[in-house]
Design brief:
Elements lengths: L1 H49 L12 E2 L10 H4 L7 E2 L19 E6 L2 E5 L2 E5 L3 E9 L17 E9 L2
Parallel strand pairs: 1-3
Antiparallel strand pairs: 2-3, 3-6, 4-5, 6-7
Length: 166
């Protein structure tokens, strides 16, 4: 009887530990998603502000000209370069309470996107008002970027949007 009770207890503890591990991974992924969403929203607001819209962002990402293939598809653009993506300011990511949720802040790249526009029956390629914004966020376990901007280890979430201004 004692052996049966011991086995049941062991299985119960294993189940609890497994459940805790899964819920911890879900939390980490959600935090990385929120970080990517922060970067995406910040860079969308910056594009609107840079193109004459209202806004009060002190730092804005550079708008890169169209390249083929797009820069966001190349990992060398994101990692291993000092002139890589725009890093969202700390105040938008971590609270001023002293606790740091994210060690590595989310990043984004804004690129002009070519679009074929038809006016009066004539099609032409335009790169003036359509932008692709690509953002990536990191979980709280990812270490801060070092000087060499090595590839991050840990949870990473990517998001992308297209914005067209008129």
């Amino acid at each position: 009887m004692l052996v049966v009770i011991s086995l049941l207890t062991t299985l119960s503890i294993r189940s609890a530990v497994s459940t805790e591990s899964v819920s911890g991974n879900v939390r980490t992924t959600e935090l990385a998603s929120q970080a990517a969403e922060i970067a995406l929203r910040y860079c969308e607001d910056a594009v609107v502000q840079l193109n004459g819209g209202a806004g009060s962002l002190a730092l804005t990402p550079p708008i890169l000209d169209f390249a083929d293939p797009p820069r966001w598809k190349t990992m060398a653009t994101w990692d291993g370069t000092t002139s890589g993506p725009f890093v969202v300011p700390t105040g938008y990511v971590n609270q001023a309470t002293g606790t740091e949720t994210y060690k590595r802040r989310p990043e984004c790249i804004v690129e002009r996107m070519p679009v074929v526009k038809t006016t009066a029956g004539v099609s032409a390629l335009s790169v003036t008002s359509t932008f692709v914004i690509t953002a990536r966020g990191f979980g709280p376990e990812v270490a801060a970027a070092d000087a060499a901007r090595k590839r991050p280890q840990g949870s990473e979430v990517w998001m992308q949007s297209t914005i067209e201004l008129k």
